[in-house]
């Protein structure tokens, strides 16, 4: 059994970042805390810190990168409505964790460098498994390793994640492999799904 991997963040994909953030701010009862652009990935985001170095990321098309010829990650330019599309974990050691993924049959792609410029001009950088290789419809997480001490989820917004549920029709096949990786249980469901429940000043919020 591997060392349990730590949740880093949830990715809520949307065709319209500003509209989705406005709707979620009303539901959560708190403001989002900035964000930035992902050069070369065709996306931008806004962040809601959840404390304990975790956060909710609203990610969608970056209009400033439109027409560059590079399709945005997560297919956000083709979405009709927002959805909880993926999640990310922090590794024990990046090479070790990626090797364990491959050992149980999941090949997440090569590790690449990502960066994002914050609204204040500062930059965040990280190593991450290829964000264009999304396996099991997002049930298998990204693996991300932050460079330096800065982290988008370091602040306390008053919102906490109560639970994250993974569902998949092939749950019986996936459950032991996820356990071997130190990942949460996979539950039965008619289709692949991520379901997150939050406690917020505005009340309970469920995203899927």
In short:
The protein is an alpha+beta fold and about 210 residues long. About 15% of the residues lie in helices and about 40% in strands.
Q: Could you characterize what this model shows?
A:
The protein is of the alpha+beta class and 208 residues long. It has a single domain, classed as 2,3-Dihydroxybiphenyl 1,2-Dioxygenase, domain 1 (Roll). It is 15% helix and 38% strand. The chain has three helices and twelve strands; from the N terminus they run βαββββαββββαβββ. The chain is globular. The protein starts with 5 loop residues before the first strand and ends with a strand. The model has no long low-confidence stretch (mean pLDDT 93).
What are the key terms here?
3 helices, single chain, eight-stranded mixed barrel, 38% strand, alpha+beta, 2,3-Dihydroxybiphenyl 1,2-Dioxygenase, domain 1, 12 strands, 208 residues, 15% helix, four-stranded mixed sheet
Please outline the helices and strands.
Layout: E1 6-13, H1 17-28, E2 35-38, E3 43-51, E4 54-61, E5 83-90, H2 94-103, E6 111-118, E7 123-129, E8 142-146, E9 160-167, H3 171-180, E10 186-187, E11 193-200, E12 203-207
Parallel strand pairs: 1-4, 5-8, 9-10
Antiparallel strand pairs: 1-5, 2-3, 2-6, 3-4, 6-7, 7-8, 9-11, 11-12
Uncertain segments:
none
Q: The CATH topology is what?
A: 2,3-Dihydroxybiphenyl 1,2-Dioxygenase, domain 1
Element-level helix/strand string: EHEEEEHEEEEHEEE
CATH superfamily label: 2,3-Dihydroxybiphenyl 1,2-Dioxygenase, domain 1
**Helix residue percentage:** 10-25%
Strand element count = 12
What is the CATH first-level class name? Alpha Beta
> How far apart are the termini?
29 Å
Strand order within the widest beta sheet = 1-4-3-2-6-7-8-5
The computed structural class is: alpha+beta
Strand count, sense and closure of the main sheet? 8 strands, mixed, barrel
Number of helices: 3
Number of domains: 1
């Amino acid at each position: 059994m591997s060392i349990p991997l730590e949740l880093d963040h949830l990715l809520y994909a949307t065709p319209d970042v500003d509209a989705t953030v406005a709707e979620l701010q009303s539901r959560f009862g708190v403001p989002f805390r900035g964000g930035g652009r992902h050069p070369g990935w065709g996306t931008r985001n806004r962040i809601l810190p959840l404390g304990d170095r975790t956060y909710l990321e609203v990610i969608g098309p970056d209009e400033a990168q439109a027409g560059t010829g590079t399709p945005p990650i997560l297919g956000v330019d083709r979405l009709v409505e927002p959805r909880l599309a993926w999640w990310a974990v922090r590794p024990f050691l990046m090479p070790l964790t990626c090797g364990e993924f491959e050992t149980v049959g999941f090949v997440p792609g090569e590790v690449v460098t990502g960066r994002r410029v914050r609204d204040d001009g500062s930059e965040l950088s990280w190593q991450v498994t290829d964000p264009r290789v999304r396996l099991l419809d997002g049930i298998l997480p990204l693996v991300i390793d932050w460079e330096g001490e800065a982290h988008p989820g370091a602040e306390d917004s008053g919102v906490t994640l109560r639970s994250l549920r993974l569902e998949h029709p092939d749950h019986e096949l996936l459950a032991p492999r996820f356990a071997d990786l130190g990942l949460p249980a996979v539950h039965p469901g008619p289709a692949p799904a991520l379901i997150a429940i939050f406690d917020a000043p505005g009340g309970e919020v469920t995203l899927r």
